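Field log, afternoon session.

UNIT: design team B
ACTIVITY: writing a sequence onto a fixed backbone
BACKBONE:
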């Protein structure tokens, strides 16, 4: 099989300030494992993953993040898929003080029709970018403070997953795996997520969660 015959999907993973390293590790490792599985099994598909940061972050850290190339937010490159991981702080003002610099980049990716995956409190960055204005948000991770901070956004029934056209809102930790599994199933096939389920010891179906009062494992479009 020639390299040119491989179907690729461009992925931009934003690394904001104060990102949660564990959640980033899940996203990157699942995408990397998917690529390896496809390569090992002669499947003509790869996720082309890049890390996105400000030039200041790159100057301070590196132009590489583990095995992934880092590009800066001033480039005009657009991605088919964008991932925005959770942040370690829950304070909305602190999140925005450190990360409002990403507003224009997020808006640009949205306007270029990227499918944007936001996890947990990363939703704050999309709200700040105005992408939720006048809409009903049903994420379980958003508390009353969020809706007071963004009064143009309506509060819906709390869910752990919500799809809003090209924006997908998901929770952190275990829910990240299910969100990624759904995405990978759409792009590749069932055998791939079966492999990933076994690799990470994650059941293919979300576990029974009725004892969590704040969660409903319901998919809403």
């Amino acid at each position: 099989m020639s390299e040119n015959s491989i179907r690729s999907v461009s992925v931009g993973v934003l690394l904001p300030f104060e990102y949660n390293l564990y959640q980033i590790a899940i996203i990157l490792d699942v995408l990397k494992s998917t690529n390896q599985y496809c390569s090992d099994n002669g499947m003509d598909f790869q996720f082309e993953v890049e890390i996105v940061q400000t030039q200041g972050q790159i100057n301070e850290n590196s132009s590489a993040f583990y095995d992934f190339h880092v590009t800066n937010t001033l480039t005009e490159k657009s991605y088919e898929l964008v991932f925005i991981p959770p942040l370690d702080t829950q304070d909305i003002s602190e999140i925005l003080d450190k990360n409002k610099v990403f507003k224009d980049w997020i808006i640009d990716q949205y306007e270029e029709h990227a499918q944007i995956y936001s996890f947990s409190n990363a939703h704050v960055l999309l709200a700040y970018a105005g992408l939720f204005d006048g809409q009903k948000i049903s994420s379980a991770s958003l508390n009353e403070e969020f809706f007071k901070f963004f009064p143009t956004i309506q509060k819906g029934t709390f869910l752990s997953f919500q799809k809003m056209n090209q924006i997908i809102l998901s929770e952190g930790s275990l829910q990240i795996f299910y969100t990624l599994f759904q995405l990978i199933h759409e792009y590749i096939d069932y055998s791939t997520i079966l492999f990933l389920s076994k690799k990470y010891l994650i059941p293919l179906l979300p576990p029974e969660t009725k004892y969590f009062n704040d969660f409903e494992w319901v998919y809403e479009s």
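LOG NOTE: Strands lie at 7-14, 45-53, 64-65, 68-72, 81-84, 115-119, 136-139, 154-159, 161-164, 167-170.
NEXT ACTIVITY: expression trials, pending approval
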